[in-house]
Design brief:
about 200 residues, alpha+beta, six-stranded antiparallel β-sheet, binds adenosine-5'-triphosphate, Chromosome partition protein Smc
Length: about 200
C-alpha cells in the first residue's frame, strides 16, 4: 500500500486545507525551521490512529487542532485524510476491489472524534486491522523518525521482535489468537456459571 495523497485541514499549523500528492519515488519536504515539516509526519501518524499526544509532540490530543495565530482565530476541528493506492496488491483482501483506500480522522474541541474508511464511519480497531502486517501503522516501521534507529538498536529483544513479526506477517495472526483466547476464556466462565445454575436446579 502506497500513500497517494494526504489532505490536512485544521491540523496543527495547517489551518486551511492543504493537499499533498505523493508521486513515484522519493518525496522530500523542505522549508525553514518551524514551517510545519514535522507536522506533516504527525498528520500521517495521527490519521493512522496514534493515541498518544506525546508521540505527536503535544500534551493533550486537543493540541493537534489549529490553536490560532496572530491573524487567525483557533479552529474547532482537525481533519486529516490519507489516501492509499491498492495497485501493488498488498492491501487486505476485502479492499483489493477498491482502487484506493481513504482513511479519515476528525477531532472536535469537545473531544468528539470520528474515524472513517472510504467515507464510512468505522472503529479505531478497523483501522488498526487494516494496517496489520503491512509495515504501516503507528507501531510499525513505516515511520522512522530522528533517533528511531538508535532506539531499535538499543531496544530489548522482545521489542525488536515486534518489528520482525510485523515484517514477517505474523502480527495479524497473533492479534487474532489473542482475541480467540479471550473469547474462549469468556465461554469457559459462562459454562462454569451454567454449571452452577444447573447444580442449583437439580
Ligand atoms: P524544524 O525544521 O525546526 O524541525 P518543522 O518544519 O519540522 O521545524 P514543525 O515542528 O512541523 O516544524 O512545526 C512547528 C510549528 O507548528 C510551530 O510554528 C508551531 O507553532 C506550529 N504548531 C504546532 N501545533 C500547532 C497548533 N495546534 N496550532 C497552530 N500551530 C501549531
Amino acid at each position: 500500500m502506497k500513500i497517494k495523497r494526504l489532505e490536512i485541514s485544521g491540523f496543527k499549523s495547517f489551518a486551511d486545507k492543504v493537499v499533498l500528492d505523493f508521486q513515484q519515488g522519493v518525496t522530500g519536504v523542505v522549508g525553514p525551521n518551524g514551517c510545519g515539516k514535522s507536522n506533516i509526519v504527525d498528520a500521517i501518524r495521527w490519521c493512522m490512529g496514534e493515541q498518544s499526544a506525546k508521540n505527536l509532540r503535544g500534551k493533550a490530543m486537543e493540541d493537534v487542532i489549529f490553536a490560532g495565530s496572530e491573524t487567525r482565530k483557533p479552529l474547532g476541528m482537525a481533519e486529516v485524510s490519507l489516501i492509499f493506492s491498492t495497485e501493488d496488491g498488498r492491501a487486505p483482501a476485502k479492499y483489493l476491489d477498491y482502487a484506493e483506500i481513504q482513511l479519515t480522522r476528525r477531532l472536535y474541541r469537545d473531544g468528539e472524534s470520528d474515524y472513517l474508511i472510504n467515507r464510512t464511519p468505522c472503529r479505531l480497531l478497523d483501522i488498526t486491522e487494516l494496517f496489520m502486517d503491512t509495515g504501516v501503522g503507528t507501531r510499525a516501521y513505516s515511520i522512522i523518525e530522528q533517533g528511531k534507529i538508535g532506539q531499535i538498536l538499543h531496544s530489548r529483544p522482545e521489542e525488536r521482535r515486534f518489528l520482525i513479526e510485523e515484517a514477517a506477517g505474523v502480527t495479524k495472526f497473533k492479534s487474532r489468537k489473542h482475541l480467540a483466547l479471550k473469547k474462549i476464556e469468556g465461554t469457559r466462565l459462562n459454562l462454569a456459571r451454567l454449571g452452577d445454575v444447573l447444580g442449583e436446579i437439580r
